[in-house]
């Protein structure tokens, strides 16, 4: 009997590949820095029983309808907006993601970006590299405090909660907005619920942690930025599609808000010529929220575990 075929869409850890090879026939797109070409992905999907996918792969009706043996798509990310989940359901393909293992790592990065933006760390680092440091001066590279300020978290899922936990350690006042109120978390972390409008008006820092869905697409637009304080700093480590980038650019240019720290963009990767990069008020990172060696390895392992479970006829560990 031939072994089930697993296609991996990017170069991942040898150990994870070896583990899968003990059970299945495995092929991998061997590039680390390059997305698998669409036509090759379609060809491989057509033969595959399982795909270990990245957030850069579009798993849509076109692919799913041409993949008669496909049983599981294991996305190596907590977000799965690259997958048409309804189409997968129609084609009886199980979709899994990698929640929990990346929660603390992504919260750490969110907090690092918050601090880097508030305290202008990239500018300060360049200040020395560009040989501009000539003396101490009272307001040299003066940033904004975090402590005792109000942090507004939009989307209090597990990563949002982990950010809130870090913020309370910094003596911040934490408010949140979420589809549903989370009274147990309010009690546990000492955070307070606010309407979206109240959050925008009261927050010194607005942190976007909501997944990209039809409802959240473009929710941070001209209107939302106008309702924030003009001293507010906006942070996004969820998905770029939640933000209207033209509106964010204008909001920063016009001084509707003070600064933005962004780990994610509408169309990734962006180049150095992206308009937001031209602004001193923007701290930009190349989507590295979950990027620690430990966590990325755990994400690969979890995706592989999900594939093994489904191909063995068991329930996956983390279905979406
Ligand atoms: C995720 O898992 O969705 C992250 O964005 C990947 O870093």
Description:
The chain has two domains: 5-99 and 293-311, 3-Layer(aba) Sandwich (Rossmann fold); 103-284, Rossmann fold (3-Layer(aba) Sandwich), CATH 3.40.50. It is 36% helix and 14% strand. It is built from twelve helices and twelve strands. The strands form two sheets. Strands 8-7-6-9-10-11-12 form a seven-stranded parallel sheet, sandwiched between helices. Strands 2-1-3-4-5 form a five-stranded parallel sheet, with helices on both faces. Helix 1 (14-21) packs parallel to helix 12 (293-311) and helix 5 (103-118) crosses helix 7 (158-169). The longest helix has 19 residues, at 293-311. It is globular. The model has no long low-confidence stretch (mean pLDDT 98). (2R)-2,3-dihydroxypropanoic acid (DGY) is lined by residues 55, 77-79, 102, 289-290. Its EC number is 1.1.1.26. InterPro entries: D-isomer_2-hydroxyacid_DH, D-isomer_2_OHA_DH_cat_dom, D-isomer_DH_CS, D-isomer_DH_CS1, D-isomer_DH_NAD-bd, NAD(P)-bd_dom_sf.
């Amino acid at each position: 009997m031939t072994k089930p075929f697993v296609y991996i869409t990017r170069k991942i850890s040898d150990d994870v590949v070896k583990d899968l090879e003990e059970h299945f026939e495995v092929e991998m797109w061997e590039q680390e820095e390059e997305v698998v070409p669409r036509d090759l992905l379609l060809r491989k999907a057509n033969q595959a029983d399982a795909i270990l996918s990245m957030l850069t792969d579009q798993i849509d009706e076109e692919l799913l309808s041409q993949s008669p043996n496909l049983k599981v798509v294991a996305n190596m990310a907590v977000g799965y907006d690259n997958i048409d989940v309804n189409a997968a359901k129609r084609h009886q393909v199980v979709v899994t993601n990698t929640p929990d293992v990346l929660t603390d790592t992504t919260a750490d990065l969110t907090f690092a970006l918050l601090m880097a933006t508030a305290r202008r760390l990239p500018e300060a680092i360049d200040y020395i590299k560009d040989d501009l440091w000539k003396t101490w001066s009272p307001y040299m590279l003066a940033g904004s405090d975090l402590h005792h300020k109000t942090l507004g978290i939009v989307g209090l899922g597990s990563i949002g909660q982990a950010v809130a936990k870090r913020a309370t350690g910094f003596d911040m006042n934490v408010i949140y907005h979420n589809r549903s109120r989370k009274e147990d978390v309010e009690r546990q972390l000492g955070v307070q619920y606010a309407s979206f409008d109240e959050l925008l008006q009261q927050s010194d820092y607005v942190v976007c942690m909501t997944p990209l869905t039809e409802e959240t697409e473009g929710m941070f637009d001209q209107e939302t930025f106008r309702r924030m304080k003009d001293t507010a700093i906006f942070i996004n480590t969820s998905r770029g599609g939640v933000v209207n980038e033209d509106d964010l650019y204008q909001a920063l240019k016009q001084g509707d808000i003070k600064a933005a720290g962004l780990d994610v963009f509408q169309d990734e990767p962006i180049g150095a010529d992206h308009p937001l990069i031209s602004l001193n008020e923007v701290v930009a990172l190349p989507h590295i929220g979950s990027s620690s060696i430990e966590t990325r390895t755990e994400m690969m392992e979890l995706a592989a575990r999900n594939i093994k479970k489904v191909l063995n006829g068991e329930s996956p560990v983390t279905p979406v």
